[in-house]
Amino acid sequence: MTLAPGVPARTRGIDCSGLLRAYPDLRRHACDNGRHLDFAHELADTETVHAVEHLAVELLACADGGDRTVLRGVTGTPTDGSRVHRMKIYGTRSPDVALSAVRYAAEILGAYYTS
Ligand SMILES: [Zn+2]
């Protein structure tokens, strides 16, 4: 995934409480962030693609047939200074469905940036 020009790399300007009100189950997401923060706290200042990953997993879980016991995502951080992130979504029925969820999650997240 590559962030579009103008999309902040981090979530500092996001309306976290609004997003968490709209998608309350994001609070229950397990998150391997290396800082022992639950995702609700991690959301306040993390890579935007990381937030997209969690929201995409949540959208898939909300969809008919989404299975929270197998759905999960992983996002890699580029080490070469680029904005190209590798994201893998596990537990979906098809890669096309996962890609659609990622794109939709990015659109939704963009609406929650306040600055
Ligand atoms: Zn996470």
Strand elements, count? 2
- Spans where pLDDT lies below 50 across 5 or more residues: none
Bound heterogens, unique:
zinc ion
Q: Beta-strand percentage?
A: 5-15%
Question: What's the Cα radius of gyration?
Answer: 13 Å
Separation, N- and C-terminal Cα atoms:
22 Å
Strand order of the largest sheet: 1-2
**Overall number of domains:** 1
Taking the sheet with the most strands, its summary is: 2 strands, antiparallel
| Average of pLDDT | 88
Structural class: mainly alpha
- The H/E string reads HHHEEH
Helix fraction by DSSP (H/I, runs of at least 4): 25-40%
Shape: globular
Number of helices: 4
Summarize the structure in words.
This protein has 115 residues and is mainly alpha-helical. The protein has one domain (16-111). The protein has four helices and two strands, in the order H-H-H-E-E-H. The chain has helices at 16-22, 39-42, 48-62, 95-111; strands spanning 72-75, 87-90. It has a two-stranded antiparallel ribbon. Helix 3 (48-62) crosses helix 4. It is globular. It starts with 15 loop residues before the first helix and ends with a helix. The structure holds zinc ion. Zinc ion binds next to helix 3.
